[in-house]
Design a protein that fits this description.
The relative contact order is 0.23. This protein has one domain: Beta-Lactamase (2-Layer Sandwich), CATH 3.30.450. Helix content is about 45%, strand content about 20%. It has helices spanning about 5-20, 50-65, 70-80, 120-135; strands spanning about 30-35, 40-45, 95-100, 110-115.
Length: about 140
């Protein structure tokens, strides 16, 4: 399971990255455990409710599916399904969520979600900064 120190290190690294880029739009970062429960959350100034919810949903989607939220979205699209077909209002089919996986046994430990930057590389890259800081 993810511990407090790992979550704090990830969040601190992502916040530090945001501070390096004062030109970035408002950003929200969320970390959840393997069942999607929120463990850590931060937002930069002027971040509004829609991106707050999206960051949490991206982390949740990555954690409960064990794959990036982008890969989840691609899988849904390939099957002709939508997230509403799954019956879980916390799922989201947009990039920005990455799973946190134990490298020793492949177990999913949680997820990191970022919202506010350009979808895909922007959000994913910041989430990866957090993942690297966890030192798994």
């Amino acid at each position: 399971m993810l511990d407090f120190d790992q979550c704090q290190a990830a969040m601190n690294a992502m916040i530090a990255k945001c501070k390096e880029h004062s030109d970035w739009p408002p950003v929200v970062m969320a970390i959840v455990d393997d069942t999607g429960n929120l463990l850590s959350y931060a937002r930069t100034d002027r971040a509004h409710l829609p991106i707050t919810r999206n960051a949490i949903k991206k982390a949740y989607t990555a954690a409960v599916n064990g794959k990036t939220s982008e890969a989840y979205a691609e899988g849904m699209k390939a099957r002709g399904w939508t997230v509403s077909d799954m019956g879980d209002p916390m799922l989201i089919s947009v990039p920005g969520g990455i799973p946190v996986v134990n490298p020793k046994d492949g177990a999913v430990l949680g997820g990191i979600g970022v919202a506010g930057l350009p979808a895909g590389p922007g959000d994913d890259d910041l989430a990866l900064v957090g993942l690297e800081a966890m030192n798994l």
